[in-house]
From TrEMBL:
This is STAS domain-containing protein. GO terms for molecular function: secondary active sulfate transmembrane transporter activity. Coiled coil: none annotated. Residues 486-662 form the STAS domain. PROSITE patterns: SLC26A (PS01130), STAS (PS50801). It comes from Lates calcarifer. CDD domains: STAS_SulP_like_sulfate_transporter (cd07042).
Length: 707
């Protein structure tokens, strides 16, 4: 049976500001005065106070609608199931942070206490995340290496190596929390949109490779010092293979058996998840068995197996972070804060859509910022969420963060009363549990052929991010990924350039604006014009150079100052030059200025803008201004901005209208080597995430320069 298909088409005229004004009557809005805004800001009534409290404490919102009879049992079951996994993952992920395992239980407890009150997601499980743990571990091993003296930090005096590492990890986490809290207070939760799904996928896959390599020393029972920095993964593998003949067979066999059992049971959990009330906690089962076998057969002494050892019983008093560590780790702490929030927000968004409630990105930043600051004060390390743990919390019946609170209480019970039972646990078991839980992230390698078939640009972003993070480290790799992603959205059409101004233009930045405009669009346009006109007027052979295969123009000559006085306003590119002289044409026929973010324009800026526009019009470049605020247009009229050359017809209401106008005007224009595709299909492109979707012709590319 054929699928029913319906077609629709949106058709309207291409509008300039002039033609739009002819067809539609302008509606004037009542603008508030500065005094009105001040009064509104300072006014506090019961409704506004209520909204402020509900925004800051989202727990009040969902507690008021909590259905005890329907939700409580599910939350309790979910909390117990999630708590068991959180305990095991906390122990395992602490190895990634180069910390004693007991501090992983701190991360499973303290951050959740504050997120319970401040977080807007009802389903994510707050605690350790392997990627963040590894990024924190890189800072820890850099400042407190396994071999050699630690960094010259005053606070390290009188501390053991483990205590120094705990101080570094908690200080980095504290600074991470400060960054997140500051971004939340400043309402910059939108920053997460700069991390596309493709970039995050490539980044987490690279992190999974780093995690896998970092855990090999535990699985093989080798002594390999922690290495950080560019190419650290290569140096780590080199040290592992040099010692491969010293592998501890007991560790290796035990790790393989545990990984095989956990993998099989997890697959069965996925297959029969509809029939199982809760997933089988295979990690907990295997940990209990490994603890019993290790204790009964005395693996530590008989087979030289490294075990967890002494567990910290109870909680230590809070401590202040170290300012010197702040100075040493600020560069790493910021990307840790961004990655932690991006992962948590992405996971939270999935479940908020599924269960039909809203989450607030800025409030999530505040919640995680305070949670990490609070947790770091009690020696926990970076907290976010883990998809596997969150999936268990949601699938086992969790409806609210009461499940998260119960899971935190379970971590507290183990820390206070049952920690000694985990002391005989081999570290190779924790390493095996970490590796087997990397399956989801490592399977993202399957996205490469899919992206290559569907979108080669996205594939380039994925590969660039992944390879950069693998070879250069996660912090630099994230920067590389962002750079590759931005480069892939910088496009350039033949003969058309779009320049977006992201701020008001006024007397202090108008010259900077003009310089950046020329730099981004055409650095040689004006010099080319000057030399061509001087050649036409004087017939001089000395002012230009012959065109050869090796040298198109003498750029030094073009940089020399010229006097425009006496030149005609409009360039005539068809005027005949001397037979032995060649001056190139300007390979640009249309310049579009995106004024969507320009909220203010003063008199000085108008003069500078007018001069800049005439410079381009002078060399036969059509200039268009799009999405200009109606009040700025009115101000331009009042200030006599328009004349015989700068017309109101240059203004268009949208970028799409301007592009359609350019397409129509130049569809048959090939005399200057400009090519515009005909009969092109229409596709949506985004230039940068902060822009709305723009309807542009397929195959068109756009250059955007921020100032």
């Amino acid at each position: 049976m054929a699928t029913l298909r319906k077609q629709y088409a949106v058709s309207r005229y291409v509008y300039s500001e002039d033609s739009f004004g002819e067809d539609y009557e302008k509606v004037y809005r009542v603008r508030k005065t500065t005094l009105d805004h001040v009064k509104e800001y300072l006014t506090c009534d019961s409704k506004r106070a209520k909204n402020a409290v509900l925004s800051l404490l989202p727990i009040i919102g969902w507690m008021r609608i909590y259905r005890v009879r329907e939700w409580l049992l599910g939350d309790v079951v979910s909390g117990i199931s999630t708590g068991l996994i959180a305990i095991m993952q906390g122990l395992a992920f602490s190895l990634l942070a180069s910390l004693p395992p007991s501090y992983g239980l701190y991360t499973a407890f303290f951050p959740m206490l504050t997120y319970f009150f401040l977080g807007t997601s009802r389903h994510i499980s707050v605690g350790s995340f392997p990627v963040l743990s590894l990024m924190v571990g890189a800072v820890v091993t850099r400042l407190v290496p396994d071999e050699g003296p630690p960094a010259n930090i005053t606070g390290f005096e009188g501390l053991t190596q483990d205590q120094q590492r705990v101080l570094v990890a908690s200080s980095v986490t504290f600074l991470m929390g400060i960054f997140q809290l500051a971004m939340g207070v400043l309402q910059v939760g939108f920053i997460v949109v700069y991390l596309s799904d493709t970039l995050v996928s490539g980044f987490t896959t690279a992190a999974a490779v780093h995690i896998l390599v970092s855990q090999l020393k535990f699985v093989l029972g080798l002594t390999v010092p922690g290495i950080s920095g560019p190419l650290s993964i290569i140096y780590t593998l080199e040290k592992i293979f040099v010692q491969i003949t010293s592998t501890n067979i007991c560790d290796l066999v035990m790790s393989i058996l545990i990984m095989a059992m956990v993998f099989i049971v997890k697959e069965l959990n996925d297959i029969y998840k509809a029939k199982l009330p809760v997933p089988i906690p295979i990690e907990v089962i295997m940990t209990v068995i490994a603890c019993g076998v290790s204790y009964g057969f005395n693996f530590e002494k008989r087979y030289d197996v490294e075990i967890v050892g002494k567990m910290v019983s109870g909680y230590e008093p809070p401590m202040a972070p170290n300012v010197e560590v702040f100075q040493e780790s600020a560069v790493e702490a910021f990307p840790i804060a961004i990655v932690g929030f991006a992962v948590a927000f992405s996971v939270a968004k999935v479940y908020s859509i599924k269960h039909d409630y809203t989450i607030d990105g800025n409030q999530e930043l505040i919640a995680f910022g305070i949670s990490n600051i609070f947790g770091a004060s009690f020696r926990s390390f970076a907290a976010s969420t883990a998809l596997s743990r969150t999936a268990v919390q949601e699938s086992s019946g969790g409806k609210t963060q009461i499940a998260g609170l119960i899971s935190a209480m379970m971590a507290m019970i183990v820390t206070v009363a049952l920690g000694f039972l985990l002391e005989p646990l081999p570290r190779s078991v924790l390493g095996a549990l970490v590796i087997v839980n990397l399956k989801g992230m490592l399977m993202q390698f399957r996205e490469i052929p899919y992206l290559w078939r569907r979108d080669k640009t996205e594939c380039l972003v994925w590969l660039g991010t992944c390879l950069g993070a693998i070879l250069l480290g996660l912090d630099l790799g994230l920067v590389v990924g962002l750079g590759v992603e931005l480069l892939t959205v910088i496009f350039e059409p033949k003969g058309v350039k779009i320049f977006r101004i992201p701020s008001p233009i006024f007397f202090a930045n108008i010259e900077f604006f003009r310089d950046k405009l020329v730099e981004a669009v055409c650095t040689t346009c004006l010099p080319i014009f000057c030399r061509r006109m001087m050649t036409l007027q004087r017939g001089s052979r000395d002012l230009v150079c012959q065109t050869t295969e090796e040298s198109y123009m003498n750029m030094e000559e073009l940089d020399q100052p010229t006097d425009l006085k006496g030149f005609p306003f409009q360039m005539d590119w068809n005027a005949e030059l001397p037979s032995n002289v060649d001056v190139p044409r300007v390979d640009l026929h249309s310049l579009i200025l995106d004024f969507s973010a320009v909220s203010f324009l003063d008199i000085s800026a108008m003069k500078g803008l007018k001069m800049a526009l005439k410079e381009f019009i002078r060399i036969d470049v059509d200039v268009y201004i799009v999405a200009c605020d109606v009040y700025i247009v009115e101000k331009l009229h009042m200030c006599m901005f328009f004349d015989d050359e700068i017309l109101t017809s240059m203004f268009f209401p949208t970028l799409h209208d301007a592009m359609l106008h350019v397409l129509e005007k130049h569809k048959d224009d090939t005399k200057n080597g400009w090519v515009v595709r005909k009969n092109c299909s229409w596709t949506y492109y985004t230039i940068l995430p902060e822009l709305a979707w723009l309807l542009l012709p397929s195959g068109f590319k756009i250059t955007r320069q921020k100032i």
